């Protein structure tokens, strides 16, 4: 399994656009083959920060998710927004 955890820090001037696009991004990701869980939740301690947690069955499905996401509307809306992610291969 592949696990991603971390956060995305959304600037105040982009918060509305990102928040409006987030439900579709979550729904599309959860519908992907191999997605076991996908959570993006507001961080109550940091304004504009969203905590991200993803779990995919294997590297291939995680890589397919990354490829799809890079070509998505979500990628356009969040382009250039700072992210801090850690990726773990739980099968090693």
| CATH architecture tag | 2-Layer Sandwich
Question: What's the gyration radius in Å?
Answer: 13 Å
CATH class categorisation: Alpha Beta
Largest sheet, described in full? 4 strands, antiparallel
Shape: globular
- Tally of contiguous helical segments: 3
Percent helix range: 25-40%
Helix vs. strand class: alpha+beta
Name the helix and strand elements from N-terminus to C-terminus, one letter apiece. Answer: EHEEHHE
Strands, count: 4
User: Mean pLDDT, rounded to whole units?
Assistant: 96
Question: Gist?
Answer:
With 92 residues, the protein is an alpha+beta fold. Helices cover 36% and strands 34% of the residues. The longest helix has 16 residues, at 15-30.
Characterization of the model:
With 92 residues, the protein is α+β, with helices and mostly antiparallel strands. It has a single domain (2-89), classed as 2-Layer Sandwich (Alpha-Beta Plaits). 36% of the residues lie in helices and 34% in strands. It contains three helices and four strands. The protein has helices at residues 15-30, 59-70, 73-77, and strands at residues 2-9, 35-42, 49-56, 83-89. A four-stranded antiparallel sheet has the order 2-3-1-4, with helices on one face.
